[in-house]
Structures
1.
Amino acid sequence: MKEITASEFEAEVVKGGKVLLDFYSTECPPCEAIAPKLEGLEKLFGEEVKFMKIFRQGNRDLSDKLAVKGSPTLLFLEDGKEVCGRLSGGVKRSEVVRELRHLMDKKDIQTIMDSVEPTVTHTDVAILGAGPGGLTAGLYLCQAKIDTTLIDIALPGGNVSTTHMVSNYPGFIDPQPGYLLSHNMSEQTKKCGTTYKVAVDVTQVDLDKKEIVIDEFETIKAKKIIIATGTSPNRIGIPGELEYKGNGISYCATCDAKYFHDKEVVVIGGGNSAIEEADFISKFASKITIIHQFDKLQANKVAQEKAFNNPKIEFKFEHEPRAFKKEGDKMVVEVEDLKTKKVETLKIDGIFVFTGQKPNLDLFDNALDLDQWGYIKTNEDMETNIEGVYAVGDVGSKKYRQITTAIADGTIAAIAITKEIDN
């Protein structure tokens, strides 16, 4: 891809016809993830669209003028005018192709995509999921000189990367920001030599054949597979939840708390995530009402003490939400008192839901043995019922799910695989 500076913007972009412009930064994992995808797409679409990049920090005036606030940020322009929305963060190859339709004829795009020759990549171990368990397994394997490929539909870090602060990770006296802890884990594993294929579309997985298809054209063939796909937030399953997700309802305090400065919000849940994140939200919101179905919190005692001593936090124990609605700019929560069965209405600015997690198993067929809660059963080496397929981290059947237990799982699986492959 051709790199330009602000002084060349007029000639190369404003007068350049159809252009995809990537504002990138150094020491930026999402930028590193998108770069090879853009280079590959340039080979396919380069005759129709100019692919260019510009160093954001070195061209701040232009970045500010164009309101580019993060890296990477992809702009799709024709004669200097943006023709569609921007892409930023962990951008997938399919998302770029989708937006190119604003610069090219859809039929031409499809014809070019249909001409792409499938490729096959061989590796010793493929790890599906780049949370703490997957990253730890990758670290141990690459240090054992075993060729390892780490694959994730998002960026590395898993749920840790969206956790405000982690206070119980060994080796740190002070609480660590979740994004920083996960970033350091990822950089350590990458530096060791693990191959990263992140922010990709995983389109097919065959656990028996040990084959994983990503972005519809690349098949990764492995000797062993480690499943480390983690969990996703549970949905409550009441009216309005899906309709207002991302538009008044959030499942990530780190992502969205900053938008509720001096506003009132509701937090649903009573476990560690709900109570710890409520404390974080209180840095922004003026009032927080925690709705919990039981008469006691399930969070750890330290988190409970902080919440009870926080003047911004109030509690509604033995209550459950029954519906979410919207009235103008306000969110409305219908809440039932489980003792009296009386339903009251709370009118607030936003809703945060922290009601547990579910295993991410949509990529797999029904061949895996699962426990009664839908988590993957493993033996003491973290191996599943399918030979050569392992499961680590929160996706596995276990009593406790913590960063440290995920790391332990990844360690065990990697050592077991190392001994097998060495033999």
2.
Amino acid sequence: MTMEKLKQKRWVRIALYVIGLIGIGVGFLILFPYLISRFNIPIEGLASTAYLVVFGITLLSNAAVLIPVTYPHLTIMIAAAQYWDPFMIALVASVAGALGEITAYYAGRLGKRIALLENVPVYDKLVGWMGKYGLWGIFVMSVQPILPVDIAGLLAGASKMPLWKFLLPCWAGKLGKYLVACYLGGAILRLLPPLPFWP
């Protein structure tokens, strides 16, 4: 099999994986309110449990190095923000997300996974950009929704940047991104045709 065909198969697998994750996320957005409505679950006393679930899932999602698992935890946050305080959901998720990125930071510090990044076409540009902008670069990588933040963590670790200097802009970027997801996600859901079990 030629190298070109292998690359095509890899991209097809990645596309199917991402589509599957989006499907899981959308399924959760529909299933969560349905279960609350169907079983008449009182949500008032479940706030602390909801924050804990958001924290745990976001932590695990962000701890996966270079594996795109963003969509399910974002949809869980959006669904939870429809029932509980969206700011608190975003705050809890941002702390968990920043802590989850420690795995990428230490992978870079220990010299792991960098070989994978060197095959990424924009690797040299990212290295130069991160070197030039430092903390702002980490913030921008954390707030944007497309490139994995793991790249910033790997590069920060490899450059022996102090952990706190990586975590602070990473947390700030994630807080901004998750606030947009919680508030804008809810606004978009309210524009869709209403389901009988949505709050």
3.
Amino acid sequence: MATQHSRSAARLMMAPAVILLLGWMLVPLTMTLYFSFKKYLPMRGGDLGWVGFENYVRFVTSSSFWPSVATTLTIVGGVLLITVVLGIFLAILLNQPMWGQGIVRILVIAPFFVMPTVSALVWKNMFMDPNYGLLSYLWEFFGAQPVEWLSKASMTSIITIVSWQWLPFATLILLTAIQSLDSEQLEAAEMDGASAPKRFAYITLPHLGRAITVVILIQTIFLLSIFAEIFVTTGGAFGTKTLSYLIFQRVLESQNVGLGSAGGVYAIILANIVAIFLMRIVGKNLDA
């Protein structure tokens, strides 16, 4: 049992890291709140004084605000659906004995380590280009007209690109959970005459509940701030402008730091609302 002296020593050793992390989070947050109440135009007059809640009102009443929130939530929902469903399928498949199993698992997980900007460029130029992309040649091979993916099916394209990036993460977490499943339960159910779908529905899927919860929570936190893929592919056009991209436009393109900071506060509020909702609805599995 740890003594009071050892606990005090542990707190003392952890203090520098805790202070650094708090500073890393609190300093940018404090500056964002500070600038959100000011009219600050770096290239057009600089600091023009306090404006109160004017930036918040302007940002939330903008014609682009609610569509950007809807776009963000649509992308998050679409990516979560694809990665969880396909992640379960791939995890079950990779758990089966096969030749070169280790190499196959590495290849499946590899896309997760590709930078978002790189993967977006690869999809944009090598797959979705209407003239020279692989999908264009595939469409022509079957006698169909090539699709201008990033303009005609922009949301589908963004969700596909982001899902390709996050599918390995979901697969890895779910594969780890499946490997912890007691095989004797499945064998006993099979001996009792349970079919494969029933074994999956009543044994495998409930066992994956906690892992699915972890995947949803972690991915949602990162997906709410999706930016690089949209910047590289559509530039926010064709209905793909997310809240993060809208903030980028207000800060860099409009040179309005105060307005962008107010948008940042709204993004924090949105992230917390979604996180609380998920913890209450989905996070119950963590207590099971």
4.
Amino acid sequence: MTSQPNDIRKPPPKNRDIMVASICGFVVAFMVGASYAAVPFYNWFCRTTGFNGTTQVATSAPETSIGRHISVRFDSNVSGGLPWKFEPEKNSVDVKIGEVVTVYYTVTNQAARATTGQAAYNVAPLTVGSYFQKINCFCFTEQTFAPGEKRELAVVFYVDPKIADNHDYDDLNSITLSYTFYPVKDPEPKPVAATEADKRKGSL
């Protein structure tokens, strides 16, 4: 019996290359889209669970403070694709535990077009997040800057006096608050007043 020729035809090399390129393009597009979606999801997850050194949100100042002091350091980062200069006004401040403090970060849009970013944050050591209380900050809010615009963004916080009850932190002498701004691909439209520069306010 003579063998029959194989009827399975392979796609021509050119068509195969086009198919592979199309698949690769789809994967890259999916990964880029997922990276933008990951920022708000990550923010929501951290706010809900306190994961990864996410600080807590307070609505008022503590009733008491204690004499113990701690150094709070400030770190600033900008993700790729966002042409911003982002830096703290001071690299660190020495605060009394329970004292409400206001600090400022400066952001400058170095692009010749309007750009929008959104900040995520955490503190180090990661386990201290539950004791770092922020009353007001610019995180989780889209920030849109006009071309060349420079703005000061405030953070109002305190270190919870309850940290003194946890003897695991008896030797803790510094906390680092770190922010990273990520680009927002499709910013939500906002009224003009929402994009006006923040004005300095005194410590609460």
